[in-house]
Protein: Acetate--CoA ligase
Organism: Candidatus Nitrosocosmicus oleophilus
Amino acid sequence: MIDPQYRKDDGHQEIISLEGNKIKGIKSISQIDPKHFWSNCAKNLTWFKEWEQVLDWNPPFARWFLGGKLNAAYNCLDRHLISEKKNHAAIIWEGEDGQSVTITYNQLFYRVNKLANALKRLGIKKGDRITIYLPMIPELVISMLACARIGAIHSVIFSGFSSQSIIDRVNDAESRIIITADGGYRRGKIVQLKKIVDEAVKQTSTVEKVIVVKRTHEDIDINEKDIWFEDLVNKESNYCVSEWMESNDPLFILYTSGTTGKPKGVVHGSGGYLTHLFNSAKWVFNFVPTDVFFCTADIGWVTGHSYVVYAPLMHGVTEIIYEGAPDYPDQGQYWNIIEKHGATILYTTPTALRSYMRYGNDIPNSYDLSSLRLLGTVGEPINPEVWMWYFNTIGKNNCPIIDTWWQTETGGIMISMCTGIENIQMKPGSGTFSLPGIELEIVDDHGKKVEANKKGYLTVKEPWPGMLLSLWNNKERYEKTYWEKTRNSYFAGDFAYVDNDGYYWILGRADDILKVAGHRLGTIELESAFISHPSVAEAAVTSKKDEIKGETIIAFLVLRKGAELSSQLDIEVNEHIKNTVGPIASAEKIYFVNKLPKTRSGKIMRRLLRSIVNNETIGDITTLEDEASIEEITHELQEINKHL
Ligand code: WT7
């Protein structure tokens, strides 16, 4: 354990009014009267109409701030126009090619309003769904906020996904519009996004228009449904009235991987979600007006939704959005951006840090990183060595590190040190404690609390404002996934333990979800993609520990009768995966086997495969249908390993 003292801002202010309350500490207040506590937190937002009821808890459905009316875009933009923030930079956008564009709050406001008007002109109404498939360019933020302004529900798809992922998500949400770009840049190369969308649109029936942003200016096919973004917004006026949204009206759907083949459409509203975001950002990041916040997450994932779009803009800070990859144009790109724009907070992933650490200290040491005051990580466990490197080499022993645990479903940060409210000892690798108002418990298979230092399932005991409203069109799956296993408490799907000092330690997923470079992928989703290749009959996907990415994908495939095992087949199958799911789903290794290890009831024993590929001891195999199959695989692996 180390005890790095961190700088505390002199301008630090308490955001929860303690009004005459004698009890010290925000946490105890939240426990004594959670509703009163959260309603004070909600007052940090701008409401058109105040709520009638703080919480309606009808397990497992929580509805926060019932009857309250507000608008997310209004909270991110309009309320800054009457302050000195009006002409401050909202976004500093850094292109992959080194160009920087600064957009002030006022400019962002205008651009959002124009698009909102255009969407209305296309007949989009409150509650309609719009799919957004864009690279990390300002139009992505503008599109989300334009949807929010008119009450349309945005469904953003990470631009690294391929057409099949778009088809599934557009069809499930029944989107009327797709907003995309001609293409995007990735390490200097062009990704033809419009082409991928064209493929997808052929297999959807609800899409009426495809709005296309010009980014690469390449020649692309223009179809009947296509409209150029520029042409659409140019003729629109600068003001569009904000829709009064009920606190629990959906703000967005964000699809995420689960334990079945079909991705889950996680639905978040505005009142609760934004309350959680505003306050968590205040507690964790302790935002001050001079902050330049650099969150490196792609907006296609929840970190981008919550802490690139909504939280920093509600706070009126300046944020950096970077278009490209951490190692492009060179291995110092994040440090270059921090120096160039004077970033004060870096919020990134352990995967990115592991890569940078491997590139050596000379690179970060050649940049001026003295503007930094706080460092954060998110998305996967951080190894203590990497944590120490981050602290010493990037933070120069001067910046606290926040290791934030949360999920697409939780909306905002749940576990983290709160630099805005407490001064505690950090422990590298632990996220420390839960945020105020967040009540966690580690339980066993029977839902019983386990003692300190014992591994169990991480659960949330009480509803919290950022909690998902439900899964899109699938209440049953919502109840089953999150509320069946541990009863009466939210099942997060992670293993964790609490140490003797009460610190939380996350031990990874307890289900069939992989975290590859921090990206969430479902094993069964990947297996279906493998099986859709004409040569593949059966597939089992597992993961192998990886020094950089945390884990990588390993696939075991059984060929169809008559299919030929050529030396190129693994490359061909991998190409197929990249085209159907996306480049992030590319397998590290593909093994062709005769049989998969299954239980007597026919379930693939992925855990066993995981043990084999990670050289761990194999547990009980007596439930196997045919023990020979596992020996076969072990044997095959040994054979293969000989050739490596
Ligand atoms: C899963 C959620 C958190 C927003 C981005 C990812 C893992 C997340 C941590 C952390 C260890 C972490 C968990 C979680 N995870 N943060 N600080 N330490 N593991 O959101 O894609 O919904 O994934 O990411 O396994 O359940 P997501």
Q: What stands out?
A: Residues 39 and 261 are 39 Å apart (CA to CA). DSSP finds 19 helices and 30 strands in the chain.
